[in-house]
Amino acid sequence: MVTAGLIHYILNLLHVTVHIRDVCVFLAPVFSGLTAISTFLLTRELWNQGAGLLAACFIAIVPGYISRSVAGSFDNEGIAIFALQFTYYLWVSASPPPLPGYSLPIFLSCIILLLVNFFPFILFLVSAWGGYVFIINLIPLHVFALLLMQRYSRRVYIGVFALLQAYAFLQYLKDRLTRQEFQTLFFLGISLAACIVFLTVIYLTYTGLSTSPSLHRCRSTSRPRGCPSSLISTSWSAPSQQAFGFASRTSMMNACLAGKVRKHVSEQEKAEEGLGPNIKSIVTMLMLMLLMMFAVHCTWVTSNAYSSPSVVLASYNHDGTRNILDDFREAYYWLRQNTDEHARVMSWWDYGYQIAGMANRTTLVDNNTWNNSHIALVGKAMSSNESAAYEIMRSLDVDYVLIIFGGVIGYSGDDINKFLWMVRIAEGEHPKDIRESDYFTPQGEFRVDKAGSPTLLNCLMYKMSYYRFGEMQLDFRTPPGFDRTRNAEIGNKDIKFKHLEEAFTSEHWLVRIYKVKKLENREALDHKLRSVVSRQKYTSKKVSVFPLRRDGFSCSLSFMMLSTTYSKTPQKIKTALNSRERKETSNNQ
Amino acid sequence: MTRRSAFVAVCLLFVAALSSEVSADGLVNEDVKRTVDLSTHLAKITAEIVLSNHGQSSVQSFILAVDADLAPHMAYIGASVKGDEEEHGTLELQQTSIQGQRGEFYKVLLPSTLAAGAQLKVKTEMMFSHVLKPFPTQITQAERQLVVFQGNHYLYSPYPTRSQTTRVRLASKTVESYTKLGNPSKTDEIIEYGPFRDVAPFSEDALKIHYENNTPFLTITSITRTIEVSHWGNIAVEETIDLRHTGAILKGPFSRYDYQRQSDSGISSVKSFKTILPASAQDVYYRDEIGNISTSHLQVLDDSVEVEVRPRFPLFGGWKTHYIIGYNLPSYEYLYTLGEQYALKMRLVDHVYDDQVIDYMTVKIILPEGAKNIHVDTPYKIDRMPNQLHYTYLDTFGRPVLVATKNNLVEQHIQDFVVHYTFNKILMLQEPLLVVGAFYILFFTVIIYVRLDFAITKDPAAEVRMKVASITEQVLTLVNRRLGLYRHMDEVVNRYKQSRDTGALNSGRKTLEADHRTLTSEISSLQARLKTEGSDLAEKVGEIQKLDGQVKELVCRSCSEAERLVGGKVKKETYIESEKSLTSRRQELISRIDSLLDAL
Q: Is A250:A139 a contact under the CB 8 Å cutoff?
């Protein structure tokens, strides 16, 4: 976010007047391009140019990364994965024994490290990205392994300061202490550290960061650039797979490993000259086929899963023309334009972000609501009957209720199909009021037709979904009120609202918005107000001080007056009581 | 005392002069045909007036009056002369005032003087917005919209009227009530009042009609029209529009079922309307804050482009929406140029829907960067705001933006404005040069970066290696050049064998010697440098030198052999024999040198 803001600021400073939205939309694709380049560089460092190229191709089409790099996915991971990959590259090219003159990269890697450490804290409120842990943990781990292998050099000191201080301290001790003493101290320290690392790994594995067996494991025995490279590939990939098993996040690491593995295969082919050209070509063909199929698969995933908007639905006629069902935006825009700016909208949490973004209205729960009781309260309102729901909605200050109803066009992702989840979540928090079994038929079926359970047929969600739907005949073969999504004629066609009114329904009935009516004026009493007669004689002096009225307002008011006066001067009220009493008795006389 | 009386006298004179100007011009409305058109959400009042001059002198102008109650809502007023040849000359209007009378007054300047006793036919037109008040102010979806109009039965005029009629055109037959002055006749949608005879000046009599009007009561509450001119051939127009249904407000629920199933449900609501764009409009877009509005259709006609603008939702009373419509126009149709002078002639406000009402309009004209001496001609009075600067791609000091606003506009305001400015054509090159410069700087930086060494620690071994590499590179070129010398010498010898020119041979030999010496010394100096760098390549270079000496010797021998042949000292066969052996030995040596060079 800071990156996008910065880019936008710089561009606008240069009078390249791009909208901040466009910057956000194209941030991920741009950074994915940079990721491909840094993957190439990293793999080239590890192996050679060809493998690097292959690795870059892999990262370009890996679905796990595409999901983070499609235009419009504005997430910190888009940047973080680039930063991660680039840090790996810089670290690898900087770590000993590197080619001479690589101290600039190590300096850069420090900067990148700082950045990567820095980003998640700023972005923490939005969604903390766990991936940066890799970098800040793995680099010390790698250095630690290097130290164990006695490969300490000055460059490492520049790179990793803190651990090296300890190491230098050990060196110092080594000079001062006797050999025996030092050895015991060293092994004690090492075993302690090993224990800590081991326990940490165990702890991380235990606390839900499950391992992912599907990941590649690079068991490379060859050492392209001496010991450290293989050390990197094993020491970095192993913990990242076992301890930090975010499968898709490490997939980009695997992309470069895959490039490397591929290279091994071809090397082996070369080694086994005896196989002959036929087998060689067959293997090559098979490999190419696999790669092509992978490319096709990735394209499919990209076009289907990540590139089609879920807000605009499209249907195709028999002649191939396209119908656009833009109901979501229709209703959201109506909310945006024709409701009060401070109106609160109650809906299931799925639509929270959409309402906030497109309708610009406050929602009770949204996609980032962690408070389960909040969601449960909304679920309870949806699954209660109207009057109970009205109490909840009044207590939550709800102005509008928005639901998704797919019965007219046969859209299966609507609220009735999600309804059981609302019931379950509500039951989790309010087991006394909501029971899931009430919403099933005695046979244990969830039905919206006449055989459905009466609780379901009278709950708020059902009534809101099917209000006036009973009159609607969609085609001549089906009866009025035929729900196309659930293929059933609805069971309750006579739906009347007391506390709600239909505020808006979109063209294909996909979104229905109801207005929660304000409390009406109190209904007139069916008997007369008790007239206050001053002559009235009080039998009990303790119960009522002032004559009690029927309406709660004056009652509570008098009570307040009483309590305040009482709390201030108990003596005064006594005298007041006494004088009043005296008056009345004199009047009576 | 005298001073006071003098003051009174001056006052009297002034009043007399004033009154004489008003009434003494002796104008009379002989015959007035008034039409009050209430069939849309606007009130359009036109009048055909036969003016006659009953005064003593000829007149230059007459006064047009607007009723006091309607005047604040007046969007447009115009007058034209209706001649016998059906030619309509629009007349110039100047706002004035008349003491002691309510309302607004306009002085209409006649094209020619109206002589005493002469007659003239004029046509006046007035447009009023927001004068049809919905009553009841709130209706349900099923109800029809009723509105009330309040006006004047008579023509409001400073002159006496001999005879007049008023015809009111309504939107529908259904009329709740109407005032019945002079027993008006009503047929279908038309109510006819009058004729009224001899009406006094400034006569007012309240006309009130309560009737059904379901025409779209759409109002553009605000519109921002941005015209961006580019000298590269394009004019981009973008209109940001806030639209509101200003009819009776929808009371109670909105039922989609009723709206879909009953044709007369929500009859006063607005589903869609047509916007007419210029014929050359291209790349039309219609969107709002949350993206493209998919419910619109574009139709390209011969003389215009029609957009069927359909808001995302139907507009009921009180509902509003907001959208952006934009398109591109080729600049050759609207931009005129003569040397450095430019003139932009476009519509100040364009069509949005029929019978449009714009409450508040802002026009922004963005001229190219570097436009100077800007001068604007507008067809009517608008409020100019201070100029702004607009920065877009590749701008350095900003484009001048002319900003103007106006309230209460109707269709009659769709007229052209002209902006004159000067622009130096050299400035057209500014932006391409900027891009070129930016790329130049970028590549230059990369070049510098690649050439410089940013390593924190020095690596002596690598430097030595690089040095050695550069030296060997030089050695290679020098050796190749030396070998080239020999080939050149061979040619000289061959030519000598044919021409027998000893002078040429000798000079050739001399240059060979000289060149060879310099090259050899250069190579040996490089060899010495290699040695100081501690490279083992120095030995190889030494070997090359040794071999080269032998080659040189062979070349010299073949040269002397040729001399002897020409001198007739040897026989041809012997020469050929020795030449052959010399060449083969040379070949052998050169190949050895080559292999050594490859090893370098």
A: no
